[in-house]
Design brief:
This protein is an all-alpha fold. It is flat, with a radius of gyration of 23 Å. The protein has six helices and two strands, in the order ααααββαα. Helices cover 56% and strands 2% of the residues. Strands 1-2 form a two-stranded antiparallel sheet. 26% of the residues are buried.
Length: 198
Amino acid sequence: MPPYPLTGNAGEGLTRVPPPQLPTRPRPRPGIEEEIREAVTVGQHLPAPARADVLSERLLAYIRVTAAAVEAAVGGRPAGDPVREDALAVVREARARLGLTAGDGYVSAIIRIRSLGRGAEALLEQQQLLRITTAETSVAVPHASDAGVIAIGAAETCTTCHELVEKRRESQARNDWAASREANGRLEEHRHADHAPA
């Protein structure tokens, strides 16, 4: 009987022709907002073990840097201030999640990633709410495609800076992270070009 019944083809003379290779562009690394979203929804899809390691390291770095920035932003507020208390509670919770260690297996790694994702998500919301106005900060996250989030001080008089920050905020409110990163990139370029020290 031929290997392909009902075709009359005995299989001789057939050679597989590989498809032509198309040039591929390197895929851009997702921003931290997308990785936080991926971590929070990790129960709906399971990442490969290598991806789980990268995701975990990115979240750990983001939490360490952002917790310090949020804590510094509310440090000057009076004790008992609700904004300060909320921010410090989020920072404490995120730092507690840093102390959780992954067990031996893949399931415990997934649980840890989800936990870190929730802590990072709460910190990101606090960072956006506070707009970190104590100084211009660029939160550097290892392996990030963008430098981080630039916050401008309340005393800033440049209308272009305020317009770009407002555009970024509106994009984040719509969960349009690509537009948010674009606005942040334009703000960074503007700050380096027009506000660089002489």
